[in-house]
Specification:
The complex is a heterodimer of chains A (112) and B (114).
Chain A (H helix, E strand, L loop, with lengths): L3 E2 L4 E5 L4 E7 L4 E9 L6 E7 L4 E4 L2 E6 L4 E6 L8 E9 L6 E2 L3 E6 L1
Chain B lengths: L4 E3 L2 E4 L5 E6 L6 E7 L5 E8 L2 E4 L8 E4 L6 E5 L8 E8 L8 E2 L3 E5 L1
Parallel strand pairs in B: 2-11
Antiparallel strand pairs in B: 1-3, 3-8, 4-5, 4-9, 5-6, 7-8, 9-10, 9-11
The chains are: A mainly beta (112), B mainly beta (114).
Chain lengths: 112, 114
């Protein structure tokens, strides 16, 4: 039972343009969401997070948007750079728990 | 700047053998989490440990798998009598006592069962 879903397995974007990665979840108890970036042969690296009391969090080129009513979050990267090419995982957790539920990942390719 | 360390990075075992995966958390972190990533899937939570205690093992298979985080030394994920379906990447993450919301991941151990 996949509680966090990333329906796009891959995405290609031109350098300088915006990358939008999407994530949907089913568990209304989730109240903390994170995005991780993963390069081949490495562990996931924390990128940005958002709690359910907010609908937007920004950190440099990265912005995460949360739409609680739609149970949807997205990661915007602008401008996209070739070094952003990686697999991006969305993760969520409940207030009472410590485990993260991960999506299956979206492989982003930024074309120079 | 020692992050989360895992060893070995690659482990090959034959069916029926035991696999031991080690994880040294980031300095100052007392919480350890183990995740498994099967091919074409996201990371799946297995177990959450603090020093000498298993806090949540709801994601751990009931048989053959065990985990520990002793007072001294790394956390160990142990898989007995491995089967082909255990082939996966196993990631360890750690967090501090004051910020359990942010987990920092190690590079993973890729287990291949022949």
């Amino acid at each position: 039972d996949q509680q966090v879903k990333q329906n796009s397995p891959s995405l290609s974007v031109q350098e300088g343009r915006i990358s939008i990665l999407n994530c949907d979840y089913t568990n209304s108890m989730f109240d903390y969401f994170l995005w991780y970036k993963k390069y081949p042969a490495e562990g996931p690296t924390f990128l940005i997070s958002i709690s359910s009391i907010k609908d937007k969090n920004e950190d440099g080129r990265f912005t995460v948007f949360l739409n609680k009513s739609a149970k949807h979050l997205s990661l915007h990267i602008v401008p996209s750079q070739p070094g952003d090419s990686a697999v991006y995982f969305c993760a969520a957790s409940e207030n009472t728990g410590n485990q993260f539920y991960f999506g299956t990942g979206t492989s982003l390719t930024v074309i120079p | 700047n020692a992050g989360v360390m895992q060893n070995p990075r690659h482990l090959v075992r034959r069916r029926g053998q035991e696999a031991r995966l080690r994880c040294s958390p980031m300095k100052g972190h007392s919480h350890v989490y183990w995740y498994r990533q099967l091919p074409e899937e996201g990371l799946k939570f297995m177990v959450y440990l603090q020093k000498e205690n298993i806090i949540d093992e709801s994601g751990m298979p009931k048989e053959r798998f065990s985990a520990e985080f002793p007072k001294e030394g790394p956390s160990i994920l142990r898989i007995q009598q491995v089967v082909r379906g255990d082939s996966a990447a196993y990631f360890c993450a750690s967090s501090s006592q004051t910020d359990t919301d942010t987990q920092y991941f190690g590079p993973g151990t890729r287990l291949t069962v022949l």
